Amino acid sequence: MKTQAYCVKCKAKKPMAGAVEAVLKNGRKAIKGKCPTCGTGMFKILGASQAKSARTAAPRTETPQTPAPKPPFRFTFFQECD
To answer: What is the spatial distance between Cα 3 and Cα 21, in angstroms, rounded to a whole number?
Structure first.
């Protein structure tokens, strides 16, 4: 896979070495790799059209989160003592 990404250390667009495709939490596809010159990690998020195919291919299963129980509300009355 010869995907180009921007290297922040070299300040240039270069092809990634050892590129691996990943799927983000929101279903979008991304590619991780290393710069062939300096070895800095590179990361590129792919376009929305490619992300749709990732969502249909691997749907996420989410468990519904229950809200934490609220503590009981207490009224506190203070009386003046003579």
So the answer is: 10
Look up the pTM and report it: 0.52
pLDDT digits (tens, 9 = 90+) for 35-59: 999 999 999 998 766 545 545 555 5
Name the amino acid, one letter, at 50: Q
Q: How many angstroms separate the Cα of 30 from the Cα of each of 21, 52, 59, 61, 80? A: 6, 12, 16, 20, 67
Residue 41: count of CB within 10 angstroms of its CB? 13
Owning domain of residue 21: 4-57
pLDDT in tens, 8-19: 999 999 999 999
Number of structural domains in the chain = 1
Residue 70 lies in a domain: no
**Domain-embedded: residue 17:** yes
